[in-house]
Amino acid sequence: MAPEPRDRLDQPRQPGRLPKRPQWDAETLAALAEKFARFLGTWAFIGYMSVFVLAWVVFNTFSPEDWQFDDFPFIFLTLMLSLQASYAAPLILLAQNRQADRDRVTYEQDRTRTELNMADTEFLTREIAAMRSALGEVATRDFLRSELGRMLDELDERERRSRPQ
Fold first, then answer.
1. What is the pTM of this model?
2. What DSSP assignment string belongs to 58-112?
């Protein structure tokens, strides 16, 4: 009996088959970790954690002896809080790294936008300078009025001279 195709190493894996190892989408997990880390930094989390610890201490202090599961030094509570802190720290660092990556992209986009704005400003400055120099050679309205006025005065003067007296 021949081995099944999936057990043979000399044949490629069939398309559509799932890998034997679980595959994780790093971006999705990072986004979830960031949401959790953001929740860790809220007053709501501090309030929930305070209520939880207070309930733990009250229950294990004032409940009947056979119901208490964590005696006075509250070793199990300390262990749980340490475990929570050991997960919280890397999640917070992950959130900070993602924020740093977003900031880096924003800074690069801002730098590119600034460079484009500077190039546009320099172009417009050159255009304005060119227009100013071109306007220096163009006759302005006031100049034309003064020239026409002077010509009218000359014509009037010629007309007066040419009239017989």
1. 0.51
2. HHHHHS-TTT--S-TT-HHHHHHHHHHHHHHHHHHHHHHHHHHHHHHHHHHHHHH
